[in-house]
From TrEMBL:
Keywords: ATP-binding, Nucleotide-binding, Transport
Entries under PANTHER family matching the protein: ABC TRANSPORTER, ATP-BINDING PROTEIN
Upper taxonomic lineage: Bacteria, Bacillati, Actinomycetota, Actinomycetes, Streptosporangiales
Protein name (database record): ABC transporter domain-containing protein
Boundaries of every ABC transporter domain copy: 3-221
Signal peptide, first to last residue: none
Gene Ontology molecular function terms on file: ATP binding; ATP hydrolysis activity
One Pfam family it belongs to: ABC_tran
Claim: Protein transport is one of the keywords in the record: no
Recorded family membership: Belongs to the ABC transporter superfamily.
UniProt source species: [Actinomadura] parvosata subsp. kistnae
Amino acid sequence: MIVETRGLEKRYGPHLALAGVDLAVPRGAVYGLVGPNGAGKTTLLAVLAGLRVPSAGEVRVAPPRGRVALLPDTPQFEPWLTGREVVALARRLVAPGVPVAREERVLADAELSGAADRRVGGYSRGMLQRLGLAATVVAEPELLLLDEPASALDPAGRREVLDLIAGLRGKATVVLSSHILSDVQEVCDTVGILREGRLLFQGPLHDLLVGRAVPAYLLRLRPPVGHVADALRAKDWVVGVDVLDEQRLRVSVRSLAAAEWLLPEALASCDARVVSMNPQAADLEDVFLELTS
Ligand SMILES: Nc1ncnc2c1ncn2[C@@H]1O[C@H](COP(=O)(O)OP(=O)(O)OP(=O)(O)O)[C@@H](O)[C@H]1O
């Protein structure tokens, strides 16, 4: 493990922001820390970065301080510096031994070569976030702590930042916090679900999804749907039926394969008028809601 905490607590006055966190980040992972607002994500990253002192518990971060980099959620730079100067300053301050050519490389990776000589005061939010990542990786850190790296961006900006993070796989260990679960599902291999300062789950994303995946069909029908829901609930191959609204049912089944041939027959026999019928794989959003609600 590149990062481990045991019984980590952080108090702000009477408020317990971290309530006994046992974090375990495998070396090389892209670890997604997810949780609702106020769960303690920023606090946990700040403790790992050494910016906040824990109130109790142990923290072990394997790389030395100079090889750990934190990108805050809204990176701020002196507005009169150019993008190139920001990256150069970061390299010179943190890792003067890293060749100067690396500055050009990280600017190019962040697609900022063309804007590198403009003052950052005129950069868009997405450009600032990409510049933040460039300045964070220029010193070749072993461990990157990224606080909500893509959350404030539009879809195109998010795409670019997610691609940059995906490109770090194999080069560094990344711990990122996010409340955009589809982003985490896309780029992370390991997740920790934090709520009210406690880790509710931690482990490979795959285990989380597969362990909890109840196969289901999403049905869109012409209303009314109540009698269809009742008829399906009576079937022994149906685990449960949720009426989502006046047109949609979520039918959890024992197996998608069995439902493929039993569901059309069951719908026909209760005169259901089917608009669409789609199998649903469990996604992080479902599991997150189940764990945090
Ligand atoms: N400096 C502080 N003083 C007092 N309370 C704080 C301080 N920083 C955070 N908190 C409280 O600690 C809890 C955890 O906050 P934190 O910012 O770590 O959560 P978060 O998961 O990052 O939330 P968000 O997604 O909203 O950024 C919250 O209840 C917050 O109000």
